[in-house]
UniProtKB/TrEMBL annotation, chain A:
It comes from Paracoccus alkanivorans. GO terms for molecular function: ATP binding; ATP hydrolysis activity. This is ABC transporter ATP-binding protein. Keywords: ATP-binding, Nucleotide-binding, Transport. The keyword Transferase does not apply.
TrEMBL record, chain B:
It is found in: Cell membrane. The chain crosses the membrane at residues 88-113, 125-147, 153-173, 207-232, 252-273. Residues 87-276 form the ABC transmembrane type-1 domain. CDD domains: TM_PBP2 (cd06261). It comes from Paracoccus alkanivorans. It holds the Pfam family BPD_transp_1. This is ABC transporter permease. One of its GO terms (biological process) is transmembrane transport. It is a multi-pass membrane protein. One of its GO terms (cellular component) is plasma membrane. Belongs to the binding-protein-dependent transport system permease family. Keywords: Cell membrane, Membrane, Transmembrane, Transmembrane helix, Transport.
Amino acid sequence: MIEANAVSLTFQTADGPVHALKDVDLSIGAGEFVSFIGPSGCGKTTFLRTIAALESPTGGALTVNGMSPDEARRARAYGYVFQAPGLYPWRTIAGNISLPLEIMGFGKADRAERVRRVLELVDLEGFGGKFPWQLSGGMQQRASIARALAFDADILLMDEPFGALDEIVRDRLNEALLELWRKTGKTIGFVTHSIPEAVYLSTRIVVMSPRPGRITRIIDSPLPAERPLDIRDTPEFIALAHEVREGLREGHGDDI
Amino acid sequence: MRNLLPILTVLLAIVAIWYVAAIGMNSTWARDQAARAETRLSAGDLVIQTLTLERPVLPAPHQVAAGLWEGIAGQKITSKRSLVWHGWITLSATLTGFAIGSLAGILLAVGIVHDRAMDQSVMPWAVASQTVPILAIAPMVIVVFASAGITGLLPKAVIAAWLSFFPVLVGMVKGLRTPDRMQLDLMRSWSASRPQMFWRLRLPSSLPYLFASLKVGIAAALVGTIVGELPAGASAGLGARLLSGSYYGQTVQIWAALFAAAALAAGLVIAVGRIEAVTLRRMGLAR
């Protein structure tokens, strides 16, 4: 689904080159839920953005669904969810979700049907006519996920989507996201800086470290697909979280 | 209604200060007249005289009010002494100039936001255009147009446009650039074309800024029109009314025209504000 081979990305800045990504090798299969975790500057967001063709790698090979990222974007291979909902204040929730559909040229009836379907998927039935400011932060972020789902991309790229929300809302949305992933079978790339979030959600956890941005460890999750919230108190979960923490420390070396 | 008391207090204070100033400034003339007639003025007479002079240095509020009333209600509106007629001449040129200026400002802003070369080349000229004193430019515009046989509304509208395009340009550039990187990235992730980005993101984002600068622009257009009327031979418009008033020392006429212009400006700004309120409410941007 997503194949990265020695992907590198170097930004030229006034202070010299910054190696945002160096020799990143990763293969993500269909239906996987892969989390990227690491301290800021480790290139996790940059890597997600290169998959989305919002940045271009300066070295290596990257394919998405067997295409170049740019072709994949034009083929609507992915939906992208940012940290902020980014809903247009002058459009209703339904209008916001229908925006990418309008841009992609879906017909009116089709748009309405899709909006209805994804609103149901994120549990926001009946809120289509509301304006964004009438919704809570968590609901707004759910609407933005619905918007990314509306055009049926196989891949969902999420860049710290719940980073700005409080922990209680975050827990609920994590649960809802897992449920949604099971129902839709999407491939999800998920950037986070929260260890419990990464462990709870993922089938695979990619630990990254900065200077240069690289992958230090890839951890397969032994947790079952069915994950109630209290799985976080099980020994398996705690052991996995510990492993991720080890990986993070390892990547840091003597930095901390 | 709670706001009424402070508003009235301020208004009364202004009127009171105005009366005192009128008495003070007109007293020299009243005393001179009395000295020439070799009569002595009592304090009461002095006050009455200073407030009823035919050509006072500073007319009293009631004189200006009477002048305004005379100019608006006391004439047929087709009369050349009617402030309504002169106001209409000024208003029509203002609105034409405002339309030209706003359109030019919006189009230039769109160009500046989308094209680097325009960004770097247009803005300095736009700024330079506003540093040229309009009083110096206005007569030249009138003369150039007149030599081409164009007189009346259009030359004045051009001067109005000259003043009103700038705030619209600045506000619109700012407004079109408000979408942040994330919103632009979202659009890119959907492979939106540049026109789609413009119509669906940049333009709606810019509307609050546009309206704020339209309010400045329409007031500037009125100033431009009045300045354009001054060298036009003083035949029509509120500017002409101001000029002929100063030719003949008709201070009441000047002040009446000034107040008419101020009321017109206030009305125009309020009108733009109403359109703004309705538009933003329809867009769901007003809470």
